[in-house]
Amino acid sequence: MRARRGDDRAKDGQAVAAHVALERGRVDPADEFTRLADRYLDTAYRLASVVLGDPTEAEDAAHDAAVLAWRRFGTLHDPDRFEQWFCRIVLNVCRDRLRHQRRHPVVELPSEDGERGGLQAPDRAGQLLARDALDRAFARLEPDHQIVVALRFYRDLTVDDIARRLDIPAGTVKSRLHHALRRLRTEMERQGWREETSDEA
């Protein structure tokens, strides 16, 4: 146990020394940012992909977030918190893009087969139709609701993890999830899709 404590102290000392060196200008901020950004850029892209649902949009969002993070890098006082700080910037960029999409929506022709019901369609075509309907319903959510749904059900993060990433209370996350799922269900039903539930006692 002593050896482990000694290792921990050594790591803490290295972290402090690195931070002090950075503060004193001995470490080039550009080099430090590049090292940290390279480590988490793939994570940022995957996160943006989940939230935006489009690879090209995700690439652009990750790029924009990296540029914004570099401009704000001087405000980050603890390099050990870079991942959480960077992810929050990515999510803010994604939120702005979602809001822009809501102001400038892409108009799609309505499906001629809107009466097809049942989310548990057995064939591949039925599954694709259900997924398409879900994607359209998801796109109608408020941006803040889209983000919590994406993080919860596509990234499989806990409510507490989402709260930390967004820097909001866990109760707010739960409230957003509740309203988002209710809206999703309403939108799916509006498109003619209903969950098959049993009313038997």
Radius of gyration: 22 Å
Which spans of ≥5 residues are poorly predicted at pLDDT below 50?
Answer: 105-122, 196-201
- Named at the architecture level, the CATH assignment of the largest domain is Orthogonal Bundle
The N- and C-terminal alpha carbons lie at a distance of 58 Å
Beta strand %: under 5%
In total, the number of strands is 0
List the helices and strands in order.
HHHHHHHH
**Overall helicity:** over 70%
Query: Which fold name corresponds to the CATH topology of the largest domain?
Result: Arc Repressor Mutant, subunit A
Mean pLDDT: 76
Q: What is the overall number of helices? A: 8
CATH homologous superfamily caption of the largest domain: Winged helix-like DNA-binding domain superfamily/Winged helix DNA-binding domain
Number of domains: 2
